[in-house]
Amino acid sequence: MAHFFEGESHTFSEYLLVPGYSSHENVPQGVSLKTPLVKFRRGEHSALTMNIPLTSAVMQAVSGPRLAIALAQEGGISFIYQSQAPEQEAKMVREVKSYKAGFVVSDSTLTPSMTLADVLELRNRTGHSTMPVTEDGSAHGLFCGIVTSRDYRVSRDDPSKRVCEFMTPAQQCITAQEGTTLKAANDIIWDHKLNQLPIVDGEGRLVSLVFRKDYDSHKSLPNELLDEHKSYIVGAGINTRDYAERVPLLVEAGADVLCIDSSEGFSEWEKLTLDWIREHYGNTVKVGAGNIVDAEGFRYLAEAGADFVKVGIGGGSICITREQKGIGRGQASALIDVCRARDEYFEEAGVYVPVCSDGGIVYDYHMTLALAMGADFLMLGRYFARFDESPTRRLNVNGSYVKEYWGEGSARARNWARYDLGGDKRLSFVEGVDSYVPYAGPLKENVEGSLTKVRSTMCNCGALDLCELREKAKITLVSATSLVEGGAHDVILKESDSSTNFRS
Ligand code: RVP
């Protein structure tokens, strides 16, 4: 007879935090969100610590180089998606590692023969209004000029007008040589009243751009996550199929941490992957594993040598695994169960294996709940997909801006390595959807907004750091009726009031 699983299956929205005593010290400015990313022994420190407990999902629609840089600047980590050729993924990792704070490698470069229509399309897609022009349109091609929104008038100019007819040509641009310091570049910008300064090499090839606005913003990045060479920390996804080929390329490219990206991680495939990495790299390569949803799954991966363990099956916003296969578990219950197992394992083995709660965060308060339930950090897809920096197109649908967001198990992503158990490819089925999410602007201000709420709630619970939150948080299950009470109710909302839209 089938075994009846005794654990529960609740999700975040079914819980609330009951406030605890807070003293005069419990103010948001005093709250630390630092958290360990990889395992450590009792009495030691984690070799990698994040300044905020957020990572971005291993997904095509989420974690490209641009988002990885923006998130590292805020103190979190992206995991570049693995559903692409290993060389291509390694190139993205390299792009993040070679990014020098303040020196931007353009991802919207033009060629002289492109048209104004191309410029407008690119501007719409990326949100960038300044675009360098290179001979072959590559980010490091021969520098030909620059286009800004001051160079054309949409209402008057012919969309077929060529870029070379309205760009500011290279000869008229003030540029600086490769090797110029950020401070010196900034002085040139101010002395010549520029908005941006192209940096070129000895042969006139474009290296990067320095923007006037970035210098000041760089100075205000107190949480940025840098390695010992002052490059941003970045993670990369791997799968349980081509690791022997992929891992060496990612390590060589400088990935700081890897993560096995699998929809179902309680499997021998994961152990074989971890064994291979340990055999070839010992403990120098850090690698997380998942996803699992109970204590047994955690124990298996911890004993197999995972540096962190990821929890979550079927709770992702674009995920239809539960509908398609009937497997999974409510994210909150899964997390509580696994965090208990982590603490028991720590007691027993003296090794602390951080737990990541992956998927299903809809409201900002879900972040606080997940952290209070024991998550060391969170992984989010939908949340980050909405920002300027995600790699997808921004579109105008029925008068509102949206960004595209699709699951790794969707037909669009074709990430069979994440789901496939082998066998005839023609029999593969989808476990994810292709969708839109509301466009939400830049990552920085959204993350700041969400974490302000997290810090504030932590103060209400009397906690000044994440360990204290876990110890002090009082979590209660709520009834379906009290859920209704939680939103605005029994009033007629004014149309102009958008403050009830708390979804993040
Ligand atoms: P969410 O943040 O709710 O959008 O969830 C993101 C998570 O969903 C990912 O980190 C991953 O674990 C899972 N995912 C990604 N693709 C799919 C799918 O197509 N089913 N699920």
UniProtKB/TrEMBL annotation:
<dbReference type="InterPro" id="IPR013785">
    <property type="entry name" value="Aldolase_TIM"/>
</dbReference>
<keyword id="KW-0332">GMP biosynthesis</keyword>
<keyword id="KW-0658">Purine biosynthesis</keyword>
<dbReference type="InterPro" id="IPR015875">
    <property type="entry name" value="IMP_DH/GMP_Rdtase_CS"/>
</dbReference>
<dbReference type="GO" id="GO:0046872">
    <property type="term" value="F:metal ion binding"/>
</dbReference>
<comment type="similarity">
    <text>Belongs to the IMPDH/GMPR family.</text>
</comment>
<dbReference type="GO" id="GO:0003938">
    <property type="term" value="F:IMP dehydrogenase activity"/>
</dbReference>
<keyword id="KW-0560">Oxidoreductase</keyword>
<feature type="binding site" description="in other chain">
    <location>
        <position position="314"/>
    </location>
    <ligand>
        <name>K(+)</name>
    </ligand>
</feature>
<dbReference type="GO" id="GO:0006177">
    <property type="term" value="P:GMP biosynthetic process"/>
</dbReference>
<feature type="binding site">
    <location>
        <begin position="312"/>
        <end position="314"/>
    </location>
    <ligand>
        <name>NAD(+)</name>
    </ligand>
</feature>
<feature type="domain" description="CBS">
    <location>
        <begin position="167"/>
        <end position="225"/>
    </location>
</feature>
<feature type="domain" description="CBS">
    <location>
        <begin position="103"/>
        <end position="162"/>
    </location>
</feature>
<dbReference type="GO" id="GO:0006183">
    <property type="term" value="P:GTP biosynthetic process"/>
</dbReference>
<feature type="binding site" description="in other chain">
    <location>
        <position position="319"/>
    </location>
    <ligand>
        <name>K(+)</name>
    </ligand>
</feature>
<feature type="binding site">
    <location>
        <begin position="261"/>
        <end position="263"/>
    </location>
    <ligand>
        <name>NAD(+)</name>
    </ligand>
</feature>
<dbReference type="InterPro" id="IPR005990">
    <property type="entry name" value="IMP_DH"/>
</dbReference>
<keyword id="KW-0479">Metal-binding</keyword>
<dbReference type="InterPro" id="IPR001093">
    <property type="entry name" value="IMP_DH_GMPRt"/>
</dbReference>
<dbReference type="Pfam" id="PF00571">
    <property type="entry name" value="CBS"/>
</dbReference>
<protein>
    <submittedName>
        <fullName>Inosine 5-monophosphate dehydrogenase</fullName>
        <ecNumber>1.1.1.205</ecNumber>
    </submittedName>
</protein>
<dbReference type="InterPro" id="IPR000644">
    <property type="entry name" value="CBS_dom"/>
</dbReference>
<feature type="binding site" description="in other chain">
    <location>
        <position position="316"/>
    </location>
    <ligand>
        <name>K(+)</name>
    </ligand>
</feature>
<keyword id="KW-0630">Potassium</keyword>
<dbReference type="InterPro" id="IPR046342">
    <property type="entry name" value="CBS_dom_sf"/>
</dbReference>
<dbReference type="Pfam" id="PF00478">
    <property type="entry name" value="IMPDH"/>
</dbReference>
<keyword id="KW-0129">CBS domain</keyword>
<keyword id="KW-0520">NAD</keyword>
